Amino acid sequence: MTYRAPVEDYNFLFEHVVGLTALRATERFGDATDDVTRAILTEAGKLCEEVLAPLQRTGDVHPAHLENGVVRTSPGFHEGFKAIAEGGWVGMSANPEYGGMGLPMALTAAVGEMMSGSCLSLQLAPMLTQGQIEALEHHASDTLKELYLPKLISGEWTGTMNLTEPQAGSDVGALTTKAEENGDGTFAVTGQKIYITWGDHDFGGNVCHLVLARLAGAPAGVRGISLFLVPKLLPDADGNPGQRNGVSVVSLEHKMGLHGSPTCVMQYDAATGWLVGEENGGMAAMFTMMNNARLGVGGQGIGIADASYQHALAYAQDRKQGKTSAPAEKDSILGHADVRRMLTTMKAEIFAARAIAVCNAVAIDMATATGDKVWKARAALLTPITKAFGTDTGIAVADMGLQVHGGMGFVEETGAAQFCRDVRVTAIYEGTNGIQAMDLVARKMMDGGEAAMALLDEISEDVEAAKAVFPRLANDVWEATESMREATEWLVSQTDLQERFAGAVPYLHAFARILGAHLHLKAAVAERGGAREKLARFYIQRMLPEHTALLAHAQAGAEDLYALTAEELAG
After folding, report:
1. Which of 173, 211, 274, 424 could make a disulfide contact with 222, Cβ separation 3.0–4.6 Å?
2. Per-residue model confidence as pLDDT tens digits over 336-370
3. What's the topology of domain 285-554?
4. Rounded to whole angstroms, what are the CA distances from 267 to 162, 209, 273, 328, 372?
């Protein structure tokens, strides 16, 4: 499959829509100049197009497999990961003290999306390692940092996170994995974890697991969970991988997609581990990693959406079927109105989701650089939207991409179906999209909607300025923003969380629609008369109106949701 990295789209977003000016004005990220960001995006694009993209199909048709207790990866994946590691891409945002580049998360997110679009199965390995790096930077002891961070940042070692157990999925507090003190500062970790992405491989080095477990006498539920670093191979006195720890792979899951990414059932038998953070503070430490991962998973959805779009567009340009009166496209299905509708929708959705993700990443960077609680609140608000909307966009766009292919989309040899299979799990892992929506309307509204209202105020200011250029488009976005404001006021007035949860998903999608329209409008203002203006008109006139129905659903409450009994649902 051919793949073209969206380098220019990111350059445009950074310079004209999101704007990195304020970020570059901070002491922390002053070195992330325009020249630097362009050079990094260009080099990352080459890696994705030339090294990773050729591995996409290979991973699907030659899956990772378990052989004598060792995970054997898909052909070429070892070399692909080596290229990622040697290029320094794992440690882009990591602390320079331990060998990282210290670059903005905005750049890491952009590169992560490109890698996802080129080969999502392989991209998962560096993404999880990046999350572990951040968790250790924030919560580990200096001793653990000095030993593990340089090797994780260089890609010599890789990282995973272990939360889920057979009886404890979204309800993490139900986990039973236990940890017992060994008397020497280490702990013996015993239990089984499932759905562990890249839990093992044959790349060499070491695999370092962050494992949630419960100490003896710990409180019940999430308040009694601690976090432990458990390596596959115990480091020797020189810090090199030594004897095998009590860690093993029981089996690999047979999945719908992502066949090149080994999803392991992990067994811990009195495995030696080190406490990360405080006792019973495991969830706080793990959420550092999970929030990083949620931004990354949103980018995975966007990356697959873009790859699927490129694949579908190329097919539509070549496929001859039927006659149309459309100028210049009479000989291909690109001239058919419905094919054109799907492709334009795909392109418009990708831009909206990508721009939202960039806004999220920049907010994280500004919070890191300034410590400003306003930026922290903005980053927190946008994270569930980025994750849910980015992955839902990936699923919807991949589905449309298959539809553009017609019957050939259902035939595996075209590769269109792989996008659908690979992207589907992104709406499930790292917190289902339903949980993201519940988080948005509950935890993220604990401030009485202050962060949401501040964001809507900024949108209104931008839209007022845009009225001088595109009065009709700006007015449409302004009215939608006011509707969103009213819905948010209703939401925060509901003291019964069940009333909020009943409409959480449509509320999140309505918010994403308004954000997407605003960012499309900013792009149109920056590039008047070009393709971006045309795309903004399509999005605002045809897709933004969906917010009306979504907000009606969001404010309908919970009563009719529970009106049918269990027996009536089954009848």
Report:
1. 173
2. 999 999 999 999 999 999 999 999 999 999 999 99
3. Butyryl-CoA Dehydrogenase, subunit A; domain 3 (1.20.140)
4. 11, 12, 14, 60, 42
Q: Is 165 a catalytic site residue?
A: no
Q: Which of 430, 450, 464, 527 is catalytic?
A: 430
Each residue of 290-322: pLDDT tens digit?
A: 777 899 999 999 999 999 999 999 999 998 887
Q: Is the dihedral of CA 548, 551, 555, 559 positive or negative?
A: positive
Pairwise pLDDT comparison (324 vs 480), residue with the higher score: 480
Predicted model pTM: 0.96
Is the distance from CB of 169 to CB of 431 less than 8 angstroms? no
DSSP code of residue 324: -
| Structure-token pair, residue 570 | 């089954």
**pLDDT > 70 fraction of the chain, expressed in percent and rounded:** 99
User: Which residues have a Cβ under 8 Å from the Cβ of 220 and sit 6 or more positions away?
Assistant: 173
Q: What are the distances in angstroms from CA 183 to CA 180, 188, 237, 272, 311?
A: 9, 10, 19, 12, 57
159-281 is a CATH 1.10.1760.20 domain: no
How far apart (Å, rounded) are the C-alpha atoms in residues 110 and 423?
Answer: 18
